[in-house]
Design brief:
Elements (H helix, E strand, L loop, with lengths): L7 E5 L3 E4 L4 E4 L1 H11 L3 E9 L2 H12 L7 E4 L5 E8 L2 E6 L10 H11 L3 E4 L7 H13 L4 E4 L9 H10 L2 E5 H10 L7 H12 L3 E5 L5 E5 L4 E4 L14 H15 L3 H15 L14 H7 L2
Parallel strand pairs: 1-4, 1-8, 2-6, 4-5, 8-9, 9-10, 10-11
Antiparallel strand pairs: 2-3, 6-7, 11-12, 12-13
Helix pairs in contact: 1-8, 3-4, 8-9
Length: about 300
């Protein structure tokens, strides 16, 4: 694929390492989505901040091996590369998202310059990195630097969100991606009157001037409502393979959704493709495939 075809997506927010007892896995929604976009032939640019530590060196090596652009990755000499401590509690995992990480200190001025330099076709952001005033300011600088469509992948993580941050994020977005659990949280926070998720999605569209709301429903598929009241939906995909885990499935869905937007696919095509890809990710361990061969059937079938 040529550089002319490689649409640029700016992805703002956290890049971090999940620290298990026996291993560490790099992740964070912006990082996972960027990895998939790179594999699909787009030009993802992460805007984040990492520490001057061993995790930084390992992370940059992963980014280089994936062929990704590191121009938007800032260096912080005072704070560590983001970490999430993963605690085993019986058969369940408990995730402890640490405070005061490098991604909490993304620099607004540098972010502004990167946005002007790369001229993105789409901006992707979430809420976790906005828990700090510094990074929230940097996101504001990014939004003001570009007229590109803005996709909010809300990714609410307790206790790192509040109503003002969510409201500000919704006002900055054109498109919203959310799951059913997060829809319930927004329903409560904004005192939406209906028990019908579609009616509440419509209320969010009207209140915040959104173009559309995409709601993912796990194994039950997904649906999208646009500002003209049109609904598109996809049922869950049955698989002949056993489910391994659901880690990163939503990020995979988001990546194909972005691909569909930039390639001009209709929603009736984008949603099934995103759903199939997310389901395939549930058949492997972790959020990112070990081999680029994983992407080949999708690239061939979708002619990308």
């Amino acid at each position: 694929m040529t550089s002319i075809q490689a649409e640029t997506v700016l992805l703002f927010g956290e890049v971090l390492a999940d620290i298990f007892d026996d291993r560490k896995v790099f992740g964070g929604a912006p990082f996972n989505v960027a990895r998939h976009l790179q594999a699909f032939g787009l030009h993802p640019v992460l805007i984040t901040r990492i520490g001057n530590d061993e995790l930084r060196r390992e992370l940059l090596a992963v980014i280089k091996d994936a062929g990704m652009d590191d121009v938007g990755i800032q260096l912080d000499v005072s704070h560590p590369t983001g970490q999430v401590m993963v605690h085993m509690e019986g058969r369940e995992h408990r995730f402890e998202i640490l405070p005061e990480q490098a991604y909490d200190y993304i620099h607004a001025g540098i972010t502004h310059m990167i946005a002007l330099a790369v001229r993105p076709q789409l901006i992707y952001f979430g809420t976790l990195a906005q828990r700090s005033a510094k990074s929230a300011q940097a996101l504001g600088a990014l939004i003001r630097s570009s007229n590109a469509p803005r996709l909010l992948d809300i990714n609410l993580r307790k206790p790192w969100y509040d109503a003002p941050t969510i409201e500000r994020s919704l006002r900055r977005a054109n498109l919203l991606k959310i799951n059913l659990e997060e829809m319930e949280i927004l329903t409560s926070l904004f005192r939406l009157s209906s028990k019908n998720p579609i009616q509440n999605a419509d209320a969010l569209i009207r209140c915040f001037g959104l173009d559309s709301v995409l709601v993912t429903c796990g194994e039950r598929g997904a649906w999208q409502l646009d500002n003209e009241g049109k609904i598109e939906s996809v049922e869950g995909s049955a698989s002949s393979q056993p489910l391994v885990d659901t880690v990163g499935a939503g990020d995979g869905f988001a990546a194909v959704y972005i691909l569909g937007i930039l390639r001009g696919w209709p929603a009736m095509l984008t949603l099934p493709r995103a759903n199939i890809f997310a389901a395939a990710l549930c058949e492997i361990r972790g959020a990112i495939p070990d081999s680029p061969d994983f992407y080949e059937p999708f690239i061939k079938d979708w002619k990308i």
